[in-house]
Design brief:
- The complex is a heterodimer of chains A (244) and B (220).
- Chain A has 244 residues and is an alpha/beta fold.
- Chain A has one domain: Spore Coat Polysaccharide Biosynthesis Protein SpsA, Chain A.
- Chain A is 40% helix and 15% strand.
- Chain A has nine helices and seven strands, in the order βαβαβαβαβαβααβαα.
- Chain B is α/β, with parallel strands linked by helices and 220 residues long.
- Chain B is 41% helix and 25% strand.
- Chain B is built from eight helices and eleven strands.
- A six-stranded parallel sheet of chain B has the order 3-2-1-4-5-6. In chain B, strands 7-8-11-9-10 form a five-stranded antiparallel sheet.
- In chain B, strand 9 and strand 10 form a beta hairpin.
- Chain B starts with a strand and ends with a helix.
- The relative contact order of chain B is 0.09.
- The chains are: A alpha/beta (244), B alpha/beta (220).
- Chains A and B meet through strand 3 and helix 3 of A and helix 2 and helix 4 of B.
């Protein structure tokens, strides 16, 4: 099986060289894709020099993480697609390999990475309580918002990607609903830049919206009530397959 | 003419209308990935054959039918998919392969992949804004994809620029017209150009680029 590694990135010049080189050193890796969010530094040039495929995300929205992940999945050609945050300072080939190994072994079709540290604030205070309310079967995941994931490429084509921070929890719920075999894999310790507290408001909002939209779609919330009292909630396409 | 349009969204809508105008009797096929959109497209474009496909089957379809396709337009709302399909179509020797960008920043990436015809719908924003606000000396008004030529607007700021523009027009025998400061359009010879006018010249890209470099050198 061949593996494509995707790094969503924006203005990550100082991390991109190491990230691409590390990914190429990983077993089974056929291609490395940088999906750029419109960097003003040299992220794109460095990535191209290192032999990565580069695409600039189709829609320059903030934060646009989901758009970047979607484009990465669509450009990839490996049997397995791995998504990794580019700013992990202790990234190693083993770290990436651990993510996709359960798929190679046939134990999973989608792997959610988790880490040996306390979960983030949005995870503990927003994602987990909402998942416990509406999708208790997913409450077992230690880090449902983890951006380190791997999956068979075909499973990513079965669902829609949220545009922003809701993408990770959205994928988790939608793939679970599709009956995809999901496991959580401990990747050890992850060192990366922490977001300041004020930057978490948008993230928390988008994560909450992603979960509530799906709860509405899956008829776990009364539609009339939701439309009356949750003013910003939007409906999602019940078809949910593909994108054009 | 047999054309395939991949994607059934906003970009594809205008593509299909243009293809129909070019050849009303031609065969147009839209490849779309969601059944809801396929149904909508059938109603919107009853003269078009609309096909539901999975994303991974499109390349296979292009390969199998390459000898039957005259024009392929990759017009999904993901530049990643557009790049994939356009690149595959070029490799499959489809005669005309066009990719329509969602993000103009991807233009160079597509050109590097030997996709000759890349439409950037946002390109006119810059030139239009410059033309309207008129703060730039040179604007690209229109670029022809097939012949690497264009129509360029040059503002005549001073006597030095005036002489250079007159010389350029005469040397290249370039068609031109003049728009004066009060927005009146004039034709005539190069002697009619005055400081304050904007001159619209049609010429090859390489000629105008060389000319602009000379102006910049002169300014430096």
């Amino acid at each position: 099986m061949e593996v494509s590694v995707v790094f969503p990135s924006k203005n990550r010049e100082k991390y991109v060289r190491k990230a691409v080189r590390t990914a190429f050193k990983t077993r089974h890796v056929r291609e490395v894709i940088i999906v750029d969010g419109g960097s003003s530094d040299n992220t794109v040039d460095v990535a191209l020099k290192e032999g990565a495929k580069v695409i600039i995300q189709s829609n320059l929205v903030y934060p646009g993480k989901g758009v970047a992940m979607r484009d990465g999945a669509y450009l990839s050609s490996g049997d397995i697609v791995v998504f990794v945050d580019i700013d992990i300072t202790n990234l190693t080939p083993q770290f990436i390999e651990r993510l996709y190994t359960p798929i190679i072994k046939g134990e999973a079709e989608f792997v959610k990475g988790c880490f040996g540290r306390a979960s983030g604030r949005v995870t503990e205070l927003v994602a987990k309580p909402l998942l416990k309310m509406f999708y208790p079967e997913l409450a077992r995941f230690k880090q449902p918002l983890s951006g380190e994931i791997a999956g068979l490429r075909k499973v990513f084509y079965q669902v829609e990607f949220e545009e922003g921070w809701g993408v990770d929890v959205g994928l988790l719920i939608d793939l679970y609903k599709k009956g995809v075999k999901i496991v959580e894999e401990d990747l050890g310790f992850k060192e990366h830049e922490m977001k300041p507290l004020h930057a978490l408001t948008d993230m928390a909002y988008q994560v909450a919206e992603a979960i509530l939209k799906r709860a509405l779609r899956d008829m776990k919330i009364d539609e009339v009530w939701a439309k009356k009292y949750i003013s910003t909630i939007s409906e999602i396409d019940l078809g949910g397959a593909g994108y054009a | 003419m047999r054309s395939i349009v991949i994607g059934g969204g906003h970009l594809a809508y205008f593509t299909v209308i243009a293809l129909r105008e070019i050849d009303p009797k031609g065969r147009i096929m839209i490849v779309e990935f969601t059944s809801e959109k396929v149904e909508m497209l059938k109603k919107t474009f009853p003269y078009v054959e609309t096909v539901l496909s999975s994303m991974d089957k499109v390349e296979e379809y292009i390969t199998e039918n390459r000898s039957l396709i005259d024009v392929l337009v990759s017009a999904t709302d993901s530049d990643a998919l557009n790049l994939r399909y356009a690149r595959h179509s070029v490799k499959s020797e489809v005669p005309i392969v066009i990719a329509i960008l969602n993000n103009p920043l991807n233009e160079l990436i597509f050109l590097k992949e030997n996709i000759k015809y890349v439409i950037n719908p946002y390109k006119t924003i810059t030139s239009k804004i410059k033309e309207i606000v008129n703060k730039s000396r040179v604007n690209i008004i229109y670029e022809f994809s097939r012949i690497n030529a264009g129509i360029y607007a040059l503002k005549i700021d001073d006597a030095k620029i005036l002489r250079k523009v007159q010389s350029f027009i005469l040397k290249n025998d370039s068609p031109f017209f003049i728009v004066s400061i009060d927005d009146k359009v004039r034709a005539g010879s190069v002697e009619n150009i005055q400081v304050g006018d904007v001159v619209y010249i049609s010429c090859l890209d390489k000629d105008i680029k060389g000319f602009l470099e000379k102006i910049r050198e002169g300014a430096g």
